[in-house]
Amino acid sequence: MNRRRFLTAAATAAAATAVTATTTGTSVAASAPFAASAPCAGAAPRVGTSDVLVLRDGLDALTALDDFRGGHTGLEGAALAGAARALEKQRLGATQRIRLRLFSVAAEYTATAAWSALDAGRSDRAHALLGKALYLAGMGQDPVTELRVWNSYAMLARQRGEYGEALDSGLAAQATGITKRDPVFASLAHARTAVGYAYLGERQAALRSLGYAREAMVKAGAGPRVRWMAFYGPAELAAITAVVLDRIGDHAGAEAASHRALAAIPEQFRRNRALATTRLALAQLHQRDVDQACATASRVFALMSGSPIPGRMRSLLGEFRRAVIILAPDASAGREWADRYRSEGSRA
Fold first, then answer.
1. Residues 13, 81: contact at Cβ < 8 Å?
2. pLDDT band at residue 346 under the 50/70/90 scheme
């Protein structure tokens, strides 16, 4: 079976599993225990490297879907189905090396499901799945997925207003082993820590962490990395910089950083481009450029045309709407944008 046919079949099977789980009210994750069972004594391994590679192909397909559309329940269900498959193969008597790799794959699938829930705005579900992903990453001795989980924990905590936990999660990401070996991962961890400091009002610490993130990015090579990290590079660092600068009151700097991000974010990351566009609109609004800010924010709906708006993005658009009401309650541009937000912003 060629790769395209396999991915189509795998996606169909995963979606069917997700639909069944949703219809019956049964969680795929709950039906697959997260503990290993020992292989039968004397049994030959029945699972090998090819099984791991097939499962990783499925991960790549889900990551591509997330890049385009964002988090949604179908993606979460498909990811959990993939985790269940990886754990089932782990119990089929593979060698210890393959078993560790399968734990790692299960952790990646579960982290993908958690991220989908986070992006969809389902914070409690995301929190529970992140705990499972962290456990599986530990079982697989996988520092890359551990960093991914801590990065997601930091984002989730910030969205929930738990800024101390957001900072602690960023620091935990910095402590993972992969940051010592790959400066791109170190840069992401420092950038996420900078956001935590900014939301706690610690301006100098936030700027210092941004500096560390930039230094690490300069040291980074162009070697291959896991598919989910494809989003992170100079463009995403500029987008995170915009968040930090806007939070600490440097709104002009945040606007400039947003423009740099949008000039460099690849077209396929349209959800990231839409988020960066909203951040640009907020930076413009905080400088009282209401007409320009509303025009910028309106571009988000065009960027996401044809797809539902993920919950995380709807929350950010809601933040912009509230800021317009507070800063320019009588502006005609603000009223027009609010009307469009009511008609399109709730698209789910």
1. yes
2. low
- What span, in angstroms and rounded, lies between the C-alpha atoms of 195 and 70? 22
Number of Cβ atoms within 10 Å of the Cβ of 291: 15
Neighbours of 33 (CB within 10 A): 11
Distance CA 102, CA 142 (A): 11
Quote helix, strand, coil % in the chain, to nearest 5.
Answer: 75, 0, 25
The dihedral sign for the CA sequence 138, 140, 145, 149: negative
Instruction: Give the containing element (helix H, strand E) for 66.
Output: helix 49-69
Contacts of 39 (CB under 8 A, 6+ apart): 45, 91, 92, 93, 94
Cα separation, 84 vs 33, whole angstroms? 9
CA-based torsion, 186, 244, 276, 78: positive or negative? positive
Residue found under tokens 């930076």: 283
Cβ pair 228, 112 in contact under 8 A:
yes
State the CB neighbour count (10 A cutoff) for residue 305.
Answer: 10
- Give me the long-range contacts of 177-182 (CB less than 8 A, separation at least 24): 177/143, 178/143, 178/144, 178/146, 178/147, 179/147, 182/220, 182/225
Helix axes 251-264, 234-247, angle to 10 degrees: 160
Tokens 């839409």 sit on residue = 274
Tens digit of pLDDT for each residue in 251-298? 999 999 999 999 999 887 888 899 999 999 999 999 999 999 999 999
- N- to C-terminal Cα distance for the chain? 36
* Close Cβ partners of 278 (under 8 Å, ≥ 6 residues apart): 297, 300, 313, 316, 317, 320
